[in-house]
Structure formats: structure tokens, C-alpha cells
Design goal:
- This protein is about 45% helix and about 15% strand.
- By secondary structure, the chain is α/β, with parallel strands linked by helices.
- The chain has one domain (about 1-150, about 180-354): TIM Barrel.
- The strands form 3 sheets. It has an 8-stranded parallel β-barrel with strand order 1-2-3-4-7-8-9-12, surrounded by 5 helices. The protein has a two-stranded antiparallel ribbon with strand order 5-6. Strands 10-11 form a two-stranded parallel sheet.
- Strand 3, helix 3 (about 90-105) and strand 4 form a beta-alpha-beta unit.
Length: about 350
């Protein structure tokens, strides 16, 4: 199981009355360096030009600017950022990834997010399409991106130069792009179209938090679809983590968060999301929407011991990656790693050695 951290590019992750509502760039850099030192596997930066947690009046940090800065001051922690097709062209993204991989000296991850906030599209002068139209655009984006990094060779007649002859093969144009910079592709979404696109193009399907039964069903569906393409795929899920020495303390913190929920903000986003046709949030209640991606639903709220027992159960369902959100990553990520993840890794090492 790989464990990552969401970077707080929108401020706090909770739609609560006392949550910080703006990004802290310095904190993002500090969290990244701490996460690498602690042994987290990767960092994830979501891309929205409007603040999708606290509303359009609040600021937001650009995901890829943050990742470029992090890439320059870390050496091994994985880096993944979201991209919305239509907001950036495939060639611009290819050039961006080529440069980023040189800054970071490692391969990047890129999460395809089709988007759900019409105002963001309108402000960016990007055509707003229906749900299927946004996935059609994303599919064409990926096809073009792959073609830029791995363009086909051209067969030409050695005397006339015409394409189509069997006489001579020109090497494919590289456009100065390093093929090793082709990123690991994540696909975010719950709809059938998201599953189909992940199975055909992706390396990892990224899901919101959900019940075990629903998680198992979706994992089986995407793996079956990927198998039809002769491919394998990883699955990641979002989790809001509240881990303490005593389980009652963690659950009390969760209840306190729920009691302080910002109903006005939640109602605003429920209406925005409802108009978008996005499947991931369609059935969520108000308490579930306190966290931006239903992170409470994955069940990582409890004592260190309870969560140590919970994570192998998620792995048994087929989950490969957990993307963690914390109240305060600088405060909470260290104890979580020390008391939950490291003991699990150590026990796994012993099992493999026996």
C-alpha cells in the first residue's frame, strides 16, 4: 500500500466554520520536505483555478507551480498533479512535464480531472460541455499526449519522399521531448466513462472515499475493464485521517468537525455540483460533504491501532494507494507515519522474510 498526502493548495480541506480558507505556499513546501523525510510515497496537488473547498471568493495556489518548487527541494518523494483537458493543450502539458521531470529528476504523475464547475470554464474561456463531452475531450487530450511522447515512425519512398512506401523509415519526430517524461496517468472519477478511460489509458483510477462494498465493486469493475484491454491498473482512494492514541478522542474530533460544518458553503457546492452532472458527489449527504472528497467514508478515523487494522482490510479489497488529508499535516502526518504506517511496513517486511 502506497501512502500519499494531499497538498493544501486551497487552505484547509474541511468545509467547516473555523477552517483556514486560503492556501499557504510556504506550508506546502514544508509539508513536502517533511513528507519525504518521514517516508511518504507521494504528494498530490489538485488543480482548480477557483477554490473548490471554500468558494470562489477565496484564493488558491497553482498546483504545478507548487510541484515545480517541491521538485527542486526534494529528491525521491513521488509527485502527482491534476490537469483539466481544455485548460492546457496537450503540447503545453508535454513540454511542462518534460521540464518538470528535469527539475525533479524523476518521473511525474498526472491526474486527469474532467471538471465540474462551469464558472471555472467560463472564466477560462474554455467551452463547457456535458459530462460525456468532457470525457470525449479528455480522451482526445490523452491520445494527443501519448502521440507527442511516442509518435509513430513514417515510412517514405527513398527516391520521391512520399509517405506510404516500404523503402525507407524516417525516425519518429521527438519534438525535443524525453520519452521517459511521459507521466504515470491517473484518472479521477466514478462514472462509467471514467472507468472506461482509466482502463484504456490510465495507470491508476483515483476514487473518492466510499463504503467497502462500493469500493470493492468499483475496483472489480475497473480491473475487469482494464483486462479487456490487456492492461493492469492501480486504484487510489481519498481518506481524511484523524488518528490519535485513543479511538474515542479521534471520533470526538470528527464529531466536533461535523458540528462546525459550514452549511452555507456546503449548500453552494451541492448546487454547483448538481448542475454539472458529475457522478462522484451525486448521492452525498451534508455531513459527507464537510470533507471535499468524502474522505471520512474510507474509515481512517480512530486510534493508531484501529487504523493499523483497517489499512490491510482496504488492501484486501484491492486498494493500492491512499491519498491522505489531515487537519494539520505538519502536526498529524508524523504520528500517523510513526504509529501506523511504519509498523505495518515492518510487519510486512518480516512476513516476506519468513
Amino acid at each position: 500500500m502506497e501512502i500519499g498526502i494531499w497538498l493544501p493548495v486551497y487552505g484547509g480541506w474541511l468545509r467547516s466554520l473555523d477552517a483556514p480558507t486560503g492556501p499557504d505556499v510556504a506550508a506546502c513546501l514544508a509539508i513536502a520536505q517533511q513528507a519525504e523525510a518521514l517516508g511518504f510515497d507521494f504528494l498530490y496537488a489538485s488543480e482548480n483555478l477557483l477554490n473548490c473547498i471554500h468558494g470562489p471568493r477565496e484564493s488558491v495556489a497553482d498546483a504545478w507551480s507548487i510541484l515545480a518548487a517541491i521538485g527542486a527541494v526534494t529528491s525521491k518523494v513521488g509527485l502527482c498533479g491534476a490537469v483539466k483537458p481544455g485548460f492546457r493543450s496537450p503540447f503545453l502539458v508535454a513540454r511542462m512535464l518534460d521540464t518538470m521531470s528535469k527539475i525533479a529528476e524523476r518521473r511525474m504523475g498526472m491526474n486527469i480531472v474532467c471538471g465540474w464547475w462551469k464558472e471555472e470554464f467560463d472564466l477560462s474561456d474554455v467551452e463547457w460541455l456535458d459530462h460525456d463531452g468532457r470525457y470525449d475531450r479528455a480522451t482526445e487530450f490523452l491520445r494527443s499526449l501519448y502521440g507527442l511522447f511516442q509518435p509513430p515512425a513514417v515510412v517514405r519512398d527513398s527516391t520521391t519522399g512520399d509517405a506510404g512506401s516500404q523503402h525507407e523509415i524516417d525516425p519518429s519526430p521527438s519534438y525535443g521531448l524525453d520519452q521517459s517524461a511521459l507521466p504515470e496517468i491517473w484518472i479521477a472519477g466514478h462514472s462509467d466513462r471514467a472507468v472506461q478511460m482509466a482502463a484504456e489509458w490510465g495507470h491508476c483510477l483515483f476514487l473518492n472515499g466510499m463504503s467497502d462494498e462500493e469500493l470493492k465493486r468499483r475496483i472489480e469493475a475497473v480491473r475487469q475493464e482494464a483486462n479487456s484491454w490487456g492492461r493492469t491498473i492501480l486504484v487510489a482512494a481519498n481518506a481524511y485521517v484523524i488518528a490519535t492514541e485513543a479511538g474515542d478522542q479521534a471520533r470526538q474530533r470528527w464529531k466536533s468537525v461535523i458540528s462546525r460544518r459550514n452549511s452555507e458553503t456546503i449548500d453552494f457546492f451541492r448546487k454547483v455540483i448538481g448542475r454539472s452532472g458529475a457522478a462522484a458527489w451525486a448521492s452525498l449527504g451534508e455531513e459527507q460533504m464537510v470533507d471535499s472528497n468524502a474522505g471520512f467514508e474510507l474509515g481512517l478515523i480512530g486510534s493508531f491501532e484501529e487504523i493499523r487494522q483497517r489499512i490491510p482490510k482496504l488492501q484486501a479489497l484491492g486498494l493500492n494507494r491512499i491519498v491522505c488529508q489531515f487537519d494539520d499535516p505538519m502536526r498529524d502526518a508524523g504520528p500517523f507515519m510513526k504509529n501506523v504506517i511504519r509498523p505495518l511496513r515492518e510487519s510486512r517486511t518480516i512476513e516476506l522474510a519468513e
